[in-house]
Amino acid sequence: MKSICIDPGHGGKDPGAPGPDGLKEADVTLAVGLLVAAYLDATGINAVLTRKTAAVPWSQATEGDDLQARCDIANRAKTDMFLSIHCNSLDDPSAHGSESYCYAFGGKGQSLAGFVLVPVAAALSITNRGVKAANFEVLRNTDMPAALIEMAFISNPAEEKLLGDPAVQSKLAVAITEGICSYFNVQFTEICHRFDCPNRI
Questions:
Q1: Which contiguous run of DSSP H or E holds residue 7?
Q2: Right CATH number for 3-195 from 3.40.50.40, 3.40.630.40, 3.40.50.300, 1.10.10.10?
Q3: What does the longest C-alpha to C-alpha distance in the chain come to?
Q4: Mind giving me the DSSP string for 30-87?
Q5: What are the backbone angles phi and psi of residue 167, rounded to the nearest 5°?
Q6: What pLDDT tens digit does each residue of the chain (201 aa) get?
Q7: How do 146-153 and 81-88 pair as beta strands?
Q8: pTM of the predicted model, to two decimals?
Q9: Is 169 helix (H, G, I), strand (E, B) or coil?
Q10: Is there a contact between 144 and 82 (Cβ–Cβ < 8 Å)?
Q11: What string of DSSP letters covers 74-110?
Q12: Rounded distance, CA 61 to CA 32, Å?
C-alpha cells in the first residue's frame, strides 16, 4: 500500500500566521489535513498524520524540536512521501496565489510538489506561483522525499476569506488528494460523493 505522512502545519503553542480578520493558519491546516487523510484512506493510500487535534502529540520545547518531531513521525512510520500543509503570509496584503516547495530540484519531492500545486491553485482559481526549492527542516530531515504546499495567502484579505470557508477547505482537501493520487498513479475518484462535501470547482 502506498503511504504518505500528512503534516498540518503549526498547532500546539504555535498558531502559525494570522489573517487580517484573525483566522489562524494552524486551524486551517488542521481542517484541511484531516480531510486529506480521510480522502486518501478512501482511495487506498495510507495517510499518517503528524497531529489530529489543535494540540500536538509531542513536547514543544523549541521550534526546532517541533519541526523535528514532525519528521520523526514520518521517519518512524517509514512512509513513501511527506507533505506539509501551510498557508502563506507576507507583510504585503496584496501578495496572492498558491506555491509549493521541495528540498532540491530534480527529485521526487519536486514531482510531488508539482502534482499537488496544480489542482490546489485551480481549485481556488488563484495564481500558480510555481514550485520552489527551500532548505526547510521538514523537507531536509525526512528520510523520504518531501514537499510543502502553501495553499494561499492568509495575509491577503480575499484569500483569508477563502481559507476560512469550510466548503473551500473541503475543495482544497480534494485538490491535494487528487495531486497525491496523480503522483502515486492511483486512480482518482470523485470522493466528494462519499463524504457529503461540496463538488470541486
A1: strand 3-8
A2: 3.40.630.40
A3: 43
A4: HHHHHHHHHHHHHHT-EEEES-SSSS-SS--SSHHHHHHHHHHHHHHHT-SEEEEEEE
A5: -65, -40
A6: 999 999 999 999 999 999 999 999 999 999 999 999 999 998 899 999 999 999 999 887 776 689 999 999 999 999 999 999 999 999 999 999 999 999 999 999 999 999 999 999 999 999 999 999 999 999 999 999 999 999 999 999 999 999 999 999 999 999 999 999 999 999 887 555 555 554 433
A7: parallel
A8: 0.94
A9: helix
A10: yes
A11: HHHHT-SEEEEEEEE--SSTT---EEEEESSTTSHHH
A12: 26
Question: Nearest Cα to 109, choosing from 71, 82, 88, 78?
Answer: 82
Cell 528520510 belongs to 143
